[in-house]
Amino acid sequence: MVKPKFLLGEKIGMTQIFVDEKKIPVTVIKAGPCLVTGLRLKNNDKYSAICLGLKDEKKDNIKLIREFRTHEDPKDVKIGDVFDVTVFEKGDKVKIQGKRKAKGFAGVVKRHGFAGGPRTHGQEDRERAPGSIGQRWPQRVRKGLRMAGRIAPLNVTVKNLEIVDILPEENLILVKGSVPGPNKSIVKIIGE
């Protein structure tokens, strides 16, 4: 049985490992075990998908359920099957989806990377100001102008991350590089 390559996991944190005397930054993800809770078929639902539930090992129930789209109807998968870290192999490329960290209300320098004004020539308190927001015509502020505002926890996808190591006895995956979201946040791991 060939299982599709995707899982739900919880971001543990970042660390570093040494491979061939080179230091590699990795993110540790506790992935699975995930239980198949439902199937979506093209005949009934107009699309194909597998619903996975992340099992809570302490309470022996399902913590949350997410849906993963597939190109064709899942033939080898049945409701009740268990997915764990063994669906991936060392060296696989994956994309990881998660919610980025929220940073609250921020100015234009932090939010959009504006340079700010000059530090001299009579400036006192305008160093991090956005500058002019309009022109003579049209005599209004145009839609979509980058201004200060809230940095919200939006969904972010990081593609082309490499799996450096898998620890199946502890359900851990070590992924090279950083993964979106704070520690203890839920992430989707999708094979490419």
* % residues in beta strands: over 45%
What do the pLDDT scores average to? Answer: 92
Determine the number of helices (DSSP H or I, runs of at least 4 residues): 2
Q: Classify the helix fraction into a percent range.
A: under 10%
Q: What general outline do the C-alpha atoms trace?
A: elongated
CATH architecture of the largest domain: Beta Barrel
Question: Can you walk me through this structure?
Answer:
The protein has 2 domains: 6-102 and 155-191, Translation factors (Elongation Factor Tu (Ef-tu), domain 3); 104-151, no CATH class. The strands form 3 sheets. Strands 1-2-11-10-7-12 form a 6-stranded antiparallel barrel. Strands 5-4-3-6 form a 4-stranded antiparallel β-sheet. The chain is mainly beta and 192 residues long. Strand 1 (6-19) and strand 2 (22-31) form a beta hairpin. The mean pLDDT is 92. The two termini are 19 Å apart. The longest helix has 5 residues, at 108-112. The protein has helices spanning 42-45, 108-112; strands at residues 6-19, 22-31, 34-40, 49-56, 61-69, 82-83, 93-99, 104-106, 149-151, 155-167, 172-176, 186-191.
